[in-house]
Write a structure and sequence with these properties.
It is a single chain. 42% of the residues are buried. The protein is 47% helix and 13% strand. The longest helix has 17 residues. The chain has 17 helices and 12 strands. By secondary structure, the protein is an alpha/beta fold. Helix 1 crosses helix 5 and helix 10 crosses helix 11.
């Protein structure tokens, strides 16, 4: 990619922060960022109907250009790649969106234009139910679509669970950030973010020294939506932020899926509402996603079907442990006494069995003597 064109695109992107649509349209009309910069003092020579506001914005170009040059130097020192919208490595699914950023800043190793890209989003207060859904979905997708790229926002809850499970399943995963790449929010996710650099990456439209302001999270949602083939909403409250990304995805003509939840559960209200209003397709498992997306022709899927994608859910368990797991699989989160009745195992022996299962990572103890199966 021509460095001068990239620098000019960075300059325009900085100018466009509060008038993105106008600058984006100008870029498309002129054909390149360089053409716009070269005509910044006589822009009406190529865009006769340029608005007075646009003419005024371009007059500030030289001041902004100095900041772009400073950013370019910073990026080179820190292994960050500025991707102008005309760069072949820029997410091509995003290019056709009217409000696509003119420049993205990327640090990582993944191909942003893989044949299959999905985003997994939802509440920042992910429940055990949501964690189980993510675990099963991503694990199965890694078998059905091994070249899949998983995108999310590196936030608490569903986002970080999706990134972690993608890494555990051998899939590349990219976090889209609401600030510059010189910092990380939340800081507690730094270890995962570092691991993602060699198995995915970090992506943002913001230059360094940009704080994680509230409006930036809304802006980054359009990147999450636009660079993906499909949006998967795992859990959401009735007015959760994930619903914003789902709405943007529909505006971009992306497929939107949502997992249903139990009626009355706070963090299933948004998903259930979206499904009810035909804003999302009901999702139950990885195969239904693959089928709905028309990805069934993948060689990996055919091979997985031949071998049977149903994994042995409870490996290396004793017969009694298997019995406990089977009961919990049918009706999760049961009290010790209820488990005793349904398995026929005395409470005195069942407590020891559950302890062993917890050590094997099969169950988790909840408050009040309840037990949860980690599927």
């Amino acid at each position: 990619m021509n460095e001068q064109e990239t620098l000019n695109a960075m300059t325009l992107a900085r100018l466009s922060y509060y008038n993105l649509a106008a600058i984006h349209a100008l870029y498309l009309e002129a054909g390149s960022a360089t053409a716009v910069i070269e005509h910044r003092r006589d822009i009406r020579a190529i865009i006769p109907d340029a608005s007075p506001r646009l003419v005024e914005i371009l007059r500030d170009c030289d001041t902004v250009r100095a900041r772009a040059e400073e950013e370019m130097a910073y990026d080179i020192r820190h292994g960050i790649r500025p991707l102008a919208i005309s760069d072949p490595d820029y997410p091509h699914r995003l290019v056709d969106c009217d409000d696509a950023p003119l420049v993205l800043y990327y640090k990582g190793s993944a191909d942003l234009n893989k044949s299959r890209v999905v985003n997994i989003i939802g509440t920042r207060k992910c429940t055990l139910y949501g964690e189980d859904l993510i675990r099963r979905l991503v694990t199965d997708l890694s078998s059905l679509c091994p070249d899949l790229l998983v995108v999310s926002g590196l936030a608490y809850g569903v986002d970080i669970c999706a990134h972690k499970q993608a890494l555990a399943s051998g899939l590349d995963t990219v976090g889209v950030l609401a600030h510059g790449l010189d910092t990380l929010y939340p800081h507690s996710h730094r270890a995962i973010a570092v691991e993602m650099l060699s198995h995915g990456g970090l992506l943002t439209e913001f230059m360094s020294r940009t704080n994680a302001d509230k409006i930036n999270f809304v802006r980054r949602n359009r990147i999450v939506a636009g660079m993906s083939d499909a949006c998967i909403l795992v859990e959401s409250a009735a007015h959760g932020g994930g619903l914003i990304t789902a709405e943007i995805s529909r505006e971009y003509h992306r497929d939107v899926f949502a997992f249903p939840g139990r009626i009355g559960d706070v963090y299933s209200e948004g998903c259930n509402q979206l499904i009810r209003d035909n804003g999302a397709m009901l999702l139950t498992d990885a195969e239904s996603l693959v089928k709905a997306m028309g990805w069934e022709g993948d060689a990996a899927l055919s091979k997985a079907r031949q071998n049977g994608i149903e994994r042995q859910m409870f490996a290396d368990l004793t017969p009694e442990e298997e019995a406990v797991a089977t009961v919990l699989d049918g009706n999760n989160d049961l009290h010790l006494n209820v488990l005793s009745v349904q398995t026929g195992i005395p409470v005195s022996r069942l407590a020891g069995i559950l302890f062993e299962m917890e050590m094997k990572g099969v169950v988790r103890t909840l408050a009040g003597g309840m037990y949860h199966l980690l599927k």
